[in-house]
Amino acid sequence: MTTVEQAEIRLSDGPRLHIRTAGQPGAPVTVVLLHGWVLDGRTWHRQVPSLAKVARVVMYDARGHGRSGGLDRRTATLDQLGDDLAEVLRVVAPTGPVVLAGHSLGGMTIMEYAHRHPADFADRVAGLFLLSTTAEGHTHTVYGLPPRVANLVRVAEMTSAQVLARLGDWRPHRVFALALRPSLRWLLFGHPCDPADLHLTTQAVVRASLGSIGGFRPSVGAQARLETLAALPSVPTAVLVGERDKLTPPACSLSITKALPGAALTICPGAGHMLMLERPDVVTSALIEVVRAVHDQHRGA
Question: Where would I find the AB hydrolase-1 domain in this sequence (predicted)?
């Protein structure tokens, strides 16, 4: 059984982040797992046992998510999340090669870190794993709906986000979990869907602060980082997406792959947005391949 240790670190501007670690501290490679918007680090739980055998594993809940705190309207931005990642790496993985693995918002956080801290990125990051994410904001997002309907939904979503952003650290009451389950099932999952995965995802969503649910929406929608990706140094990279992903459809991953020559693209038939839960074996195998490639490169250096 894999032992997962839990701790907290405090960022330089005050917020505390909840950290989970597994594997041997002296492992040659550190893998940092970044979760999606309004989720938390637990979404990677099916990857951790296998990863911990070949690397040190670090997961943390982003500010305003999970067990972490410290969110206000000024800091609910991708810029801030990119800076947070830089600070987390300095604290929990100050030396040695790092593989960054990001799901959805986590992938966007990695891109923002690369954009804002290019020298640090080039020096530390030896492998990339981009899962169900985008470098183009909501350009390709139509929620699985006809484009005209999707535009109306986006307007309503942006309007409600402005309201939620003002509510700060308030969390939805857990009674909303049952009401959310059908919509989350439709929006986030393909086929099949394990009820345990839907339960975990729903619990993560209701644990996120209302400020994070609404506050991050503007910067997420406006993101544009294809040029940043194109300028990155070449490292072992895998890009995965679900065929039925309604939030970051395959077009998002195709553009990422074009910007990152040599990146391996996998489209998972029938799967939705929550690939690490829906297709755990595929995700784990692809991630371990990246880790082994990084390990081999540094062993031969």
Answer: 31-284
Distance of CA 34 to the CA centre of its chain: 4
Cα separation, 288 vs 270, whole angstroms? 23
- The answer to whether the Cα torsion of 141, 145, 146, 148 is positive or negative is negative
* Rounded CA Rg of the chain: 18
80 contacts 46 by C-beta, under 8 angstroms = no
Mind listing the domains of the chain with CATH numbers? Answer: 5-299 (3.40.50.1820)
Question: Using CA atoms, how far apart are residues 62 and 259, in angstroms rounded to an integer?
Answer: 26
Cα distance between residue 209 and residue 70, in whole Å = 10
Which residues, at least 6 apart from 254, have a Cβ–Cβ distance to it below 8 Å?
265
- The HSE-up count of residue 239 (CA atoms within 13 Å, CB side) is 26
Task: To the nearest 10°, report the CA torsion of 43, 45, 50, 53.
Answer: 110
pLDDT tens digits for range 205-253: 888 777 677 677 888 888 999 999 999 999 999 999 999 999 999 999 9
Q: pTM of the full predicted structure?
A: 0.92
Distance CA 265, CA 62 (A): 26
Q: Are 98 and 29 in contact (CB under 8 A)?
A: yes
